[in-house]
## 1
Amino acid sequence: EDKVVQSPLSLVVHEGDTVTLNCSYEVTNFRSLLWYKQEKKAPTFLFMLTSSGIEKKSGRLSSILDKKELFSILNITATQTGDSAVYLCAVERSSNYKLTFGKGTLLTVNP
Amino acid sequence: SAVISQKPSRDICQRGTSLTIQCQVDSQVTMMFWYRQQPGQSLTLIATANQGSEATYESGFVIDKFPISRPNLTFSTLTVSNMSPEDSSIYLCSVADPGQGSGANVLTFGAGSRLTVL
């Protein structure tokens, strides 16, 4: 059975801090790992990672995948209150678009 | 990227009743999925909605409890039947969206339907 474990489950920081969110996984026939941000209900796509060691970057957010050690990290630098959300990690197996999600990390950024 | 409209956005239902959730996409999509997110839990795939044929259900989900229709490439419904308080959850529609992720088929999600069963 596919498994995705995220840590920490929750995190409280102050504006300007840098945070690192972790995602480890076990999946048969791994195809990709995805990060989503969920603020209210709809998860919104952040990154898709398929290759080890290649950093994906978007503004203050970046992510990298290690397929040997089966984990990914999501970094957020210079956090803002608008970064407060649940960050979801998901893995896809074998090109069938079905995702297995972790429980998410609840990030709270205080002013 | 695809725009997904779901309704209702929320509802409060009585035990034993059924509710149908609608999902409308602004473009034709091949792959459409229904997920559930119970309080404090991760998103769990219920089924793949197949156009013109029966939905494909994941382990632990059955057609009698969660009947799904997919009459065309832009629309699907999920019914939660004979509801109990354990069905209180957010139900999300998603589609494989070639408009996201640099051309890769990333899943785009609707805003979800929050059901509370009393």
Note: The mean pLDDT of chain B is 91.
## 2
Amino acid sequence: DGGITQSPKYLFRKEGQNVTLSCEQNLNHDAMYWYRQDPGQGLRLIYYSQIVNDFQKGDIAEGYSVSREKKESFPLTVTSAQKNPTAFYLCASSIDLAGPVYEQYFGPGTRLTVT
Amino acid sequence: AQSVAQPEDQVNVAEGNPLTVKCTYSVSGNPYLFWYVQYPNRGLQFLLKYITGDNLVKGSYGFEAEFNKSQTSFHLKKPSALVSDSALYFCAVRVFHGSSNTGKLIFGQGTTLQVKP
């Protein structure tokens, strides 16, 4: 899982509560990403960030928010507006967003269960 | 629409036999293709990528992939499977936003590889 840490590994919340998932990287990468993984659906992009204080919506941003105040940190907040928040959440980083050759490195993931 | 497809939900192979996990893609422009592996409750690990050049790409853990432009495929292969290769495998393609050089990955839905002793 390289130099990307996600915490906690498992997270349980009641419906209607906001929850923030942590993602930290020490790879000195500029770009960071958040994905959601559901069984049989692969990975879907929630948000991504190319530089500090800048981020863009991915394919399924509704009900989520992010911040990028530091290069190494990209926390994801799952709000009460997210209809089906129970999922496995993966954070990733890459050297840069531009340029075709850079693979993404993934953290170990956080499994969120909302009841 | 730009996309990537993995036509098999699961592939079963006996240990020691060759394995193939299939991937096809649809992109405008040059394809930039990746394979990742995921073990249970873990993040994804990068295996290999195709950017340009030789159609046969070698990667980690003895895996390789063959790029076929005419068939728009990028199948993952290994000459001799190990039980420890059992995992979920994802193919991904880099897509670009309009005229900018910024891009993102689109992932296939994943293929579960089961290697039996």
Note: Residues 32 and 64 of chain A are 15 Å apart (CA to CA).
## 3
Amino acid sequence: QAQLVESGGGVAQPGGSLRLSCAASGFSFSSYGMYWVRQAPGKGLDWVAFIRYDGSNKYYADSVKGRFTISRDNSKNTLYLQMNSLRVEDTAVYYCAKGSGSNSGGRLDCWGQGTLVTVS
Amino acid sequence: QSVLTQPPSVSAAPGQKVTISCSGSSSNIGNNYVSWYQQVPGTAPKLLIYDNNMRPSGIPDRFSGSKSGTSATLGITGLQTGDEADYYCGTWDGSLSAWVFGGGTKLTVL
């Protein structure tokens, strides 16, 4: 059974940095595209970034482009989100999610429990 | 402002039926599969419907999905108090090269 566990959230100052990790288990991590999705307090779901199964293609929301970097280590079954130049409006619960195929599209069929990032 | 448009809220009595709409464009819903997610407050989202009308294992057939053109609809029959949650539609947008969500719909079972 697929499982995703995020870590690395916490409190950061505006302009600061944080790196989130997402440990995957129960499926062939290296075969699937992966997503980061966030949810600000009391708000809806907001897609952040996508990375192809082999890391060759990455896409970002305009709101984080140039500040956040998505990456993966298939040898460690781990997805990352490096967040730099953090802003107050980046405060949210960050979820990693598994795509249904190797590339973008399809569906997000497994979600982690989320990790809270507070920028203040 | 979300790329996909959903009503902010819907409500119905236990046992009744409700539908939630999701409107988009040719660059997203019109040319890609739609999926639906259920989020009970304080928990992570869960896949409810995929490929427009397919249910993952474990999802009861009270939940259904459909798509026509650039719009999609989630239907829930036999409403239960446990169905109270936020529901989101989502799909890939080829023009934006981005995954897009609707703004979410809060379901209240009166």
Note: Chain A has no helices and eleven strands.
## 4
Amino acid sequence: DSGVTQTPKHLITATGQRVTLRCSPRSGDLSVYWYQQSLDQGLQFLIQYYNGEERAKGNILERFSAQQFPDLHSELNLSSLELGDSALYFCASSVDGANTEAFFGQGTRLTVV
Amino acid sequence: GIQVEQSPPDLILQEGANSTLRCNFSDSVNNLQWFHQNPWGQLINLFYIPSGTKQNGRLSATTVATERYSLLYISSSQTTDSGVYFCAPRTARQLTFGSGTQLTVLP
């Protein structure tokens, strides 16, 4: 158990819908990252937050948004879902977001039908 | 952005065999991690290794940051070692994953 908690574990939804994925970082970690793993794209970095502020942005679509709350948990919102958004979404956390080890949650498997 | 290449892409071993997985990266990095993704999809931390050599049981890793590569050694492989092994160098912006090495260990 990495200490990073993601909910839900599985999600099945229809095209055009909106979903929210939740992540609770390890105790003491200030930085949260989101990654998408699809069969054809591998593990792609989406976005990073540090202590509530956006720190880095990767290949995140405009239909996707994220935030980190004062209690340091984070949510990833995916809207206007398409079939191609089906993937495993990982959250990771680390102490400082730059030079410390990152730990990953178990992932949320999203299936868009 | 940084380019990360892992080799070989696929590896099939007989139980008990040894193997070396390689990770090349194109830019200077702050640190580097190795992960094992098991058949259930979990990403398990193996090593946090900015430079030098570390060992954990049957696994060891070496990173030569000045030459931009890292190696993961698996000795006396077991069927439970099967899965995908990823290296992920970290730049100032992000942890970038390679495409992985798919390891299959046969009984």
Note: Residues 1 and 54 of chain A are 26 Å apart (CA to CA).
